[in-house]
Amino acid sequence: MTRPTRRTLLSASATAALAVPVTSGKAATIAGVLPWAPNAVTPPEAVTPGGWRYFTPEEAEAIDAIVARLIPADDLGPGAKEAGCTVFIDRQLAGPYGGHDTLYMEGPFPADPLPQQGVQSQVTPRQHYRAGLAALAAYCKATFAGKGFAALDTEAQDKLLAGLESNAVKLPGADGRAFFAAVLGNTMEGFFADPVHGGNRDLAGWKLIGFPGARYDYRDVIAKPNQAYALPPVGLQGRPDWRNKP
Amino acid sequence: MTRRLPRKDVVVVGLGWTGSIVALELARAGLSVVAIERGPWRDTATDFNIGTAPDELRYAVRNDAFLPPKVETLTARNNISQRALPMRRWGSFLPGHGVGGAGIHWNGQTWRFLPDDFRLRSKIVERYGEAFLPADSTIQDWGVTYSELEPHYDRFEHVLGISGKAGNIGGKLQDGGNPFEGARSREFPTEPMAPSHAQNLFAKAAAERGLHPFPRPSANLSTAYTNTYGCKMAPCTYCGFCERFGCANYSKASPQTCVLPVLVREPNFEARTECEVTKVNLAPDGKQATGVTYVDAAGEEFEQPADLVIVCAYAIFNVRLLLLSGIGKPYDPQRNEGVVGRNYAYQCGAGATGFFEDTKFNPFAGAGSNATAADDYNSDNFDHGPHGFVGGASMSCGHSNGRPILYHPTPPGTPAWGSKWKRAVRDTYQRVAGVGAQGSVMSYRGNYLDLDPTYKDPLGRPLMRMTFDFQDNERKLSAWMALRCEEVAKAMGAKQVLTGKLTGPWSTVPYQTTHNTGGAVMGSDPKTSVLNRYLQSWDVPNVFVMGASAFPQNAGYNPTGTVGALTYWALEAIIGKYLKSPGALVPA
Amino acid sequence: MRAAGLVLLALLLAPVARAEDAQVARGRALATAGDCVACHTAPGGGDFAGGLALETPFGIIRTANLTPDKTTGIGTWSAEDFRVAMREGVRPDGMHLYPAFPYPYYARVAPADVDAIFAYLRTLKPVANAVDRDTLPFPYSIRGLMRGWNLLFLGGQPFTPDPKRSAEFNRGAYLAEGLGHCGACHTPLERFGSSNNAAYLQANRIAGWTAPNITADARLGIGAWSIEEIVAYLHTGANSTSLASGPMAEVVTHSTSQMPVEDLRAIAVYLKERGAAGAPAPAPVAPNDPAMQAGQAIFVDTCGACHGRDGAGVSGVFPRLAGNPVVVQDDPGSLARVVLGGARAAATSGAPTSPAMPAFGYRLDDRQVAAVLTYIRNAWGNAAAAVPPAAVGEMRSALVARAP
Q1: Which chain B residues touch A97 with a CB distance below 8 Å?
Q2: DSSP character at residue C203
Q3: Alpha carbons A105 and B140: distance in angstroms, whole number
């Protein structure tokens, strides 16, 4: 997600978008009336698939293979790969999240923080993924006769991932468990986040569990306790029924 | 170079709930008021556009509406033997940012503390004896009573339009309300919200177990409402995007919906946004504030002279501003002397997660405060004698939301990924209801706030350092409440129940609650309080400090209702007494 | 700390208040009723110092400086100069004013009232603000052309009460047809920019907004509003179904909310009693029309949380859409504009909330905006022509051109 700045946006298409900063980052004096400007809105940049903003093709291939095992496609529906979680993670890493842009990153960074003091590393998510994927590639190459993770059969992939999760598998020069946890966490984010961010394609994650999304009005649900909800899910960019075919 | 600005009667530091109310009431009293706010202006239609607001990743996971830690964070440790390290990202709590403050992103649970809570130390000593007080605790009475605050609770609730059911009007118990509450002067402004299936199960199970369930007081409104300032609000739509989000449809009480529309119309009021107050300036004798210094977004420094300084920032940052300004004696835990930073407290949780069969809880249809509660185990509503702890918790059940990144439960023993996880997450989403307990935290000699010796903010000022851990008293309370929650969850028909209670040291990592209290507490004795009973600084009488920083210890409730009541209480004293005769309202 | 300052202020103000004679006070009230300040004040500029750019079908016209500044304002004008300008649209130097300044309406104002306004304007603080008054493109830049225009259209006669009507009606007519110049916005313009008196108050597109029908027509006008609801709308900007936004929010803020309630009541009586005009309802667009289907889906997901799935709205916060004449005007311009760019309701002391409609131009394309508008115009018993996507596209382009 690109951190949006406040701007006026009139066009629904990105090409004709008008981007004019209104107030952010500037001290303002407010008196008399509530500030307001037409067209002022701060939508997130809508992710469109295609190409990689951060991953190399090899890295993307490995992430695709990992997320396909974390949330597999099966008889219940699409998995994380089909839902676009790799695109989601790529765009997240390319944006402010990937660089820890809003976090407190002043030193010193002691080497031995207590677990309850949280992350105390200078390593950003971008760097974490790059190093973790390189270590995974090196481990696979050495262990599986030169094959990368994506080339392994699913059984071997699952076994390796479970090994990372339990810390039974040690990656050369990287904390495999922390890397696994990061990918799992981001995969879940991508699978369940609004599709505007690149994952949860066709609302696959929401349809799986029955989350109806951003409709903002469930008075009809609360009025009928313990009954199934019928309307299809909707994301910030709408749903297929919004299309008015000529 | 610092630019000196024309004098104002009042400078208000921070424009959230307390700042907006203070600014409005003092402007209406005829004073010129400037509110200085670190974050940006925030407007419902612009910043909480209904087409951008319900974005879980952006607001609830990436914390887009909260204070960026790079602007300010704090360091944390459990005790003085540890080295404090910065909270590089928010975890345990989430401070707000910008106009509206925490009033933007709160859930809306709007409680009154119980009469016993305001004289807690006296009550414990009377009923159980002094030896019953927890070791090293610094529990004290507030210096104000419930009956003194009642009109101000009432006033705050009618500004917000709180939905609920009274349990005690003028001493007469009311069916369907909380029989333990202090007497109210009248019914809630709006009727209770509509209950969900889980709430219905809870209400029945709790009543069967002899508890007294009632609808939790809610700032998500059940119906349209026009408040006492003439501001109009719309009914809540149970959208499930309250906590961590701004409300898009004017149905959650906030400074935006309840105060700012009338505040900006006051001709002698102005707000300056994206301006950070760095210091309250004092006269050479240190006994009078002369105004504040602030830095705008471009880095330019200004001096704003004023006759009255009202500090209305977030509780923790109120304390930091006092320390950075040299107002009041900093607390020293070794010598047990000083007051600023003393009696920092928090909230402790416990709960039971019930896994049901064949239910459709529809967790996505909810509101931040839509729940059914029971107060039988709160405060001193039960005999603590057999249990060996003081304090209590409000118990409640209800789905505030079903947002799926942070809420996709699976039964215990489910793998964290793979096809088995996928099937479990699908099968479980509609079948989980929790009974939660929000517990009090007492104040202790070793839990406090001071300035960090190592880490600085971008302006080069030391960060706040928090030294805090849960003590045995709270661990006992939490463990006991977990069992109470489990009993009710089972009685609701859950097939499997998972309990949660305090374990291990307090951690900065998982979210717990943004109910940080104390550090600039009110009281009757300048040796053990920063503020007198009117929230006026003992040391610098033209400085008042609003907010939960004034709580001597925390109760088993969300703080906002009491924060609001204290604000109106202090305003009554400022307008009715201080302006007529500026100076200390209570002799030190 | 404050008391001393307050006393001093009172002492300074007292003689001034006494000095303001009755004529000036009346002039101030009349200038308020005429909302002179709305057009004669530029954003960020001094009150009455002019310079606001008015959009007309012929180009941009900047408004005059009405403060008594001797070089850039009307400081050298006589009362008679002012009377001629107000009545005939001619400046003391003989140059013609454009009828963006609605002198055909002001011709109906009683001379004594014009003099009172002039007396009030003389008390303003002079502001030096030179306004470029000649910004229209050729041939409209030739002010002399107005001589011919006036021959054709200047029908404004001093107001004469209708003895068959009540005093209240006549008071309302004097205000609405004269200083209030309601028709300047709410009456469609002829080809040369004059009001089409045959379609008086029957809706008009002005400055990119639809000024709706305000005849007593029950479907398109204010016929379904009670006198009390009209008064509430003018007095506070809000009544149980509607909120003033766009240019009408400014009218309410600067003018009608400041006027005596008796005058608002007189205007309401006039509007209710002077007659109804409006086309009958067309057949509604069928619910199975693809635009209606898409529009309903968009409405349920985007609009229903505020306006209600039944279109009932919330009094004072979200306008009612079901049965609201604004929704079914022939011209859907304002509707498209409000959905694309949002709108803020008027803020008044009687209705301070000033809620705002969020902008959706970033989220919905032209077809989707057209679909949801077609839906609200034809749901819940409403009936109006379908909105073509091209009309939304034109409004979007105009808003882009207008954006800061």
Answers
A1: 62
A2: E
A3: 39
Residue corresponding to tokens 């979210």 = B511
- SS3 call for C76: coil
Range of the domain at B263: 3-87+95-578
Does the distance separating the beta carbons of B230 and C2 come in below 8 Å? no
User: What are B294's two structure tokens?
Assistant: 């602030």
For the record, the structure tokens of B160 come out as 């917000």
Q: Which residues of A touch B54 (CB under 8 A)?
A: 194, 213-214, 216, 236
Nearest to C2 among B9, B249, B262 (CB): B9
Question: Do residues B192 and B218 make contact, with C-beta atoms less than 8 angstroms apart?
Answer: yes
Contact call for residues A231 and A215 (beta carbons, < 8 A): yes
Phi-psi label, residue C181: left if phi above 0, alpha if psi -120 to 50, beta otherwise: left
Is B587 a member of any domain?
no
Q: Give contacts of B51 with chain A, Cβ < 8 Å.
A: 41, 43, 236
Q: At what angle do helices A85-94 and A176-192 cross, to 10 degrees?
A: 110
Q: How far apart are CA C86 and CA C101, in angstroms?
A: 9
The secondary structure of residue A174, as a DSSP letter, is: B
Identify the pLDDT of residue C155. 55
Reported residue count of chain A is 246
Q: In the structure encoding, which two tokens stand for residue B548, read together? A: 């939960």
Give the DSSP letter string of C21-47: -HHHHHHHHHHHHHTHHHHSB-TTS-T
- B344 vs B138: CA distance, rounded Å: 10
CB nearest A10 (choices: C291, C344, C400) = C400
Cβ B250 vs Cβ B220: under 8 Å: no
pLDDT tens across C272-296, in order?
999 999 999 999 999 999 999 999 9
Per DSSP, the three-state class of B337 is strand
Task: Give the ipTM.
Answer: 0.96
- CA-wise closest residue to A136 among A125, A124, A152, A123: A152
pLDDT digits (tens, 9 = 90+) for C215-267: 999 999 999 999 999 999 999 999 999 999 999 999 999 999 999 999 999 99
- Whats the size of chain C, residue-wise? 404
Q: Where are the alpha helices (DSSP H) in C143-260?
A: 145-153, 167-177, 182-186, 227-236, 247-254
Q: Please state, in angstroms and rounded to a whole number, the distance separating the CA atoms of residues B532 and A218.
A: 46
Q: Which amino acid is at C17?
A: A
**Smallest CA–CA separation between A167 and chain B, in Å?**
15
- Measured between alpha carbons, how far is residue B191 from residues B248, B301, B564 in Å? 22, 49, 20
Strand pairing category for B269-273 and B33-36: parallel
Q: What is the CATH number of the domain that holds B443?
A: 3.50.50.60
Inspect the interface and report whether the beta carbons of B270 and A31 lie closer than 8 Å.
yes
Q: Which two tokens stand for residue A197?
A: 């961010």
With a threshold of 0.80, does the pTM exceed it? yes
Biggest CA-to-CA distance, chain C: 72
The answer to whether position B583 is within a domain reads no
Give B150-183 as a DSSP string: HHHHHHHHHHHT-B---SEETTEE-TTS-TTSPP
- Structural domain includes residue B226: yes
Distance of alpha carbon B329 from its chain centroid, rounded? 25
Q: What is the dihedral of CA A155, A156, A157, A161, to 10 degrees?
A: 110
What region does B80 belong to: left with phi over 0, alpha with psi -120 to 50, or beta?
Answer: alpha
Q: What tokens appear for B542 in the block?
A: 């033209």
Give the count of domains, chain B: 1
Active site residue B515: yes
Using one digit for the tens of pLDDT, what is the confidence trace for B175-212? Answer: 999 999 999 999 999 999 999 999 999 999 999 999 99
| Domain spans of chain A, in order of start | 51-100+121-246
Looking up tokens 């416990």, which residue turns up? B350
- Is B585 a member of any domain? no
Question: How far apart are the C-alpha atoms of B214 and A35, rounded to whole Å?
Answer: 40
Helix or strand holding residue B36 (H, E): strand B33-36
